[in-house]
Amino acid sequence: xxxxxxxxxxxxxxxxxxxxxxxxxxxxxxxxxxxxxxxxxxxxxxxxxxxxxxxxxxxxxxxxxxxxxxxxxxxxxxxxxxxxxxxxxx
Length: 90
Known about the structure:
The termini are far apart. 2% of the residues are buried. α1 packs across α2 (29-40). Helix content is 63%, strand content 0%. It is an all-alpha fold. It is built from 3 helices and no strands. InterPro entries: Nucleotide-diphossugar_trans.
């Protein structure tokens, strides 16, 4: 957690407590979201993705470069796979 004070500002002490509980295995992600949902009167649900690249926060020049590198590598890998699958020209 880069900025705990921002989490407290956004979610309050209860929100920070939920993150700590989750971090130390004292509850599931779903349980934490359910408690926060009840506290804030919102429907908060986790979105779990298998690809960590979706978590890149592009808010600075450096993170933009990282995101562009990830995309370029994936395109190259996809192009290489496609060219191996393509039938040979007659």
